[in-house]
Design goal:
mainly alpha; 12 helices; disordered C terminus
């Protein structure tokens, strides 16, 4: 069974023979990229305004099991991508070890820094393509938030749009670091969406802001890895797709800034709530004593 799974995740002819070409892969043109992102933003704003006009004084619309099904699906998809790219990376390391010995490159350096001239083909780029497509499914959470909470978050729109854009750049320019980035992201997302499914079906949550803590961990790992790519680029004579990597780093920095701003505000609000509850409890105790 393990060999069968390994075959379908890393050795299938469709995976081994994958090529990122405009004539073979769906959604791999710049026109499609910008059109899809614009459609996502416009539809989100339109849905938010329509719900505010039609259901301003009503309770949030129920979605039933749809969020739970979406979370379970995304958890399974993320875990499949994680397993697939992990096995594919191991297979690529096995098949090209002779090439790396010639250029004195280690597997860990390859995960951070593709050699110059790398083309978007083969196992790891197949799973990078699947990851790119899964980012569109990820945007459904924006619609759930709008329908259930009547809330449109600029950070959510920006974050989802940038994730789609960056995953496109990974493929278009054979950008370095993408293998490790996908491994980190899908491992965290498997846990995050599993937790969301757990709470969506009514099971108790055990950790305050568990999802936010996982996102902080992911962003911190990305920062460390980006520093590693920069060092290898200057020490090893260049990494493939470094121009796209620079743009990727700027966008990641913007996401990190916005998320930390949101994270700090969230904890300040929690602290204010805790202080208010504590003062109310103290006042009630004084009233009983009096």
């Amino acid at each position: 069974m393990i060999q069968t799974l390994g075959y379908y995740l890393s050795e299938h002819p469709l995976i081994v023979g994958f090529r990122w070409k405009h004539s073979q892969s769906w959604g791999n043109t710049w026109v499609f990229l910008f059109t899809s992102i614009a459609a996502y933003v416009i539809f989100s704003v339109f849905l938010h305004l329509i719900l505010l006009l039609l259901f301003r004084h009503r309770r949030p619309l129920p979605l039933g099991p749809i969020p739970a099904v979406h979370s379970l699906s995304m958890a399974l998809i993320s875990f499949t991508i994680f397993a697939g790219i992990l096995l594919s990376a191991a297979a690529e390391i096995r098949d090209t070890r002779w090439f790396w010995r010639r250029y004195k490159t280690t597997p860990f350096q390859w995960l951070l820094c593709f050699p110059l001239g790398t083309r978007p083909s083969g196992r790891v780029f197949f799973w990078s393509y699947i990851f790119y497509l899964s980012r569109f499914l990820h945007t459904f959470r924006t619609f759930f938030t709008i329908i259930r909470r009547r809330k449109l978050s600029f950070f959510q729109l920006f974050n989802h749009s940038i994730l789609i854009f960056m995953s496109f750049l990974w493929l278009e320019f054979s950008q370095s670091f993408q293998v490790l980035a996908i491994i980190l992201t899908t491992s965290i997302y498997s846990v995050v969406y599993g937790y969301r499914f757990w709470t969506a079906v009514g099971l108790p949550s055990k950790c305050f802001h568990f999802v936010n803590h996982c996102q902080v961990l992911l962003l911190g790992c990305n920062v460390v890895c980006h520093v590693g790519v920069l060092l290898l680029h200057f020490l090893k004579g260049g990494c493939n797709g470094i121009g796209a990597w620079v743009l990727n780093s700027v966008l990641n920095g913007a996401i990190l800034f916005l998320f930390l701003n949101f994270y700090v505000k969230l904890h300040l609000e929690k602290r204010k709530i805790d202080v208010t509850k504590g003062s109310e409890t103290l006042d009630s105790v004084k009233d009983k004593d009096s």
